[in-house]
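Teaching soon. Got one?

===
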Amino acid sequence: TDQGTGSDRSIANGLKWCADSCASIINLSAGSNVKSPMIVGTMAELAQQGIIFSVAAGNDSQPGRPVDVGSPANEPFLFGVTAIDRKGQIANFSNRGESADVAAPGVEIRSCGRQGTYVVMSGTSMAAPWVSGYIAAYMDHVQVSTGKLPSFENIMAWLTKNAKDLGKPGRDWEYGLGLPDPS
């Protein structure tokens, strides 16, 4: 709806529509602390077909009270994205946990508003599209050079090698592999 809500069925149908419209990567900025078998099942089916997902981790944490990555971002077949601030620190609102795959800017991001306006927003929903675009550019590069799109595993290996490590050395619960590095 125009209020930012939708039923599990409408979200699943939207994901199918994206795949039917030849999307190679889908950004999803929707989640819950309760797993939706319909949404996760649809995403799993599409992932089996080669669709890549970049999904917002959620914004339920508070200073001193971290919350685990929400569903569906906590699924192993997609990229769960946490948010960082301008200093490269985990945003205090960003969910985090074992399912965090990568981090991206998500604080005070200029975005499109209603009726042709621009707004400044914060959230993992601002970080996930950054990762979607980054992965899409990599997918395009691979497709141009090899003639086929990379698999989820290929993209994960590439991110593991190329992400800028943030926080504790190696993969961690706040930043995952770190910030994808386009250099």
